[in-house]
Structures are given as structure tokens and as C-alpha cells.
Amino acid sequence: MRYAAHDAPGFTIILEGECWITFEGQEPARFGKGDFLLLPSTPPFSLSSHPGIEGAFREPMDIPVRHGDQEGEPDFVSLGGTFRIEQANAALLLALLPSVIHIPASQGRADRLGTVIGLIMEECGRDDPGKDMILQRLLEILLVEALRWRGMDSGVAGLLGGMRDPVLARVLRAMHADVRAGWTVAELAGIAGLSRSAFAARFGDALGCGPIEYLGRWRMALAKDSLIRGAKTLDRIADEIGYESASAFSTAFRKRLGCSPGKFARSVPAAEAA
Length: 274
Prior knowledge:
- This protein has 274 residues and is α+β, with helices and mostly antiparallel strands.
- It has twelve helices and eight strands.
- It is globular.
- The model is unreliable at 270-274 (pLDDT under 50).
């Protein structure tokens, strides 16, 4: 079976049997029982019982589907799903994450992930009050549980790599705790206990951008979140993220996003702002 790209994160856990998954432009990879796969942005891929099989295109469905022989016990069973990230900040998140997160069953996290997914399955089959809120929290737990896995490729630049480096983690915590501060490379290097040049190189290697550029991206992510929610004035947003005035914030926002804060807020779909 083949699936088209899906502009949202996707996940799957293999419950029984094994399969081969081939992402566009890559070699087939084998997945077995208990393996967990998280795709921050789902690319085109194929799913098959053996490598090299060209299947027909399928549309994802939100009901159980059985392919092939409809009789007897299935050779392969998996559970997959997707969740939505606010489009305003999706680009920032995807830039900070690896393209594929594969957690093999042999790494010992299958039981934890399976427990969370079991709760998601159970909740989807119920119609109790608070269902949507519980599902949202369970999906958040699933995402965090996958992202905290330390077997992830440490060579991929991004926020996770930075947080796994104790030196850079101190810096990131300080920046996130006081985004209003007029941080300089020298001040951040002092927190890291490194020279300016060593700190800048280490930060860039781990996160894929310089510390001041990262701070600017993070401020804009917070600003976009506030604009989407629509409960704060531009003056308040500017003050909370470290700009001296609404005018200075608007200028910086337009420079990075290509539009004014007001136009951005008006362009957000109603469903996303809700």
C-alpha cells in the first residue's frame, strides 16, 4: 500500500507481525512488533509485507481496515494516527525535530508507549464527558514520551539535541524563562561557562542556528501563539517577549513573517484560533 504525503504529524506502533516501510527516496526499513514510529511531518511512503513491493494508493481512514485476505488471523496488525499542530508554529517545530523518530521495541519503551496508545484506543471507543480534552492530553503525553527517547539520532541539529547537552540545556532554560531579557552572546556564553566563540559554535552545531537567531524565532513563536488566541494587545505582546514598543515588535514581526501582526491574526482560520 502507498500513501501520499500528509501535512501533519503521524505515528504508528506495530502490534503484531512485521512490515517494511519505504519513505520516498530511501531504502526500505523493517519494523517489527512493538516498534514505534513518529513522523513530525508525514512524507509519502509505502507499507508492504516484503521490500520492493509496489502497492496501490490508499487513503488513511479513521476506522479499522483489513487489507488482503479477509479470513483467519491477520499476519500483521498496526495502530496509527495523526494529530494537529497549530500551523502558525508548525514550521518552527518541524525545523527543530528530526524527520523520523523510530523507537525499536528492543529499547524498552514499547510498554510505556503501548500503555499510552491503549488508553487512546480506549478513549476513542467511549463517549464520556471530557473525551476531547483527555484525548488531547494523551496525545501530548505520547509526543513527549517519544521525544524524550535518548536513542534518537544525536547528529540531527535541533532543540532536542540542545536539550540533551547539559551545557546548552542551562542556556535554553535561561532563555525560555526570561524571553524578555536583552540576551547577548557573551551573557549566554557565561551561563554555559564557555568562551563566546566556543559557545556560539557549540550552539550552532546542536541547534542549527545561532543563539540570538534562536531567541528571535522563539519570541516570534510566542507572539504568534498570542495573536492566534487574540486576548492580548500588541503593546502587551511586545512587552512580554522583549520589545520596547508595539512599533518595534511590529517591525520585527513583519521582517520575519512578511506581514503585520494584525494581518497575521486575521489570516488565522477560525478553527485554529478556537
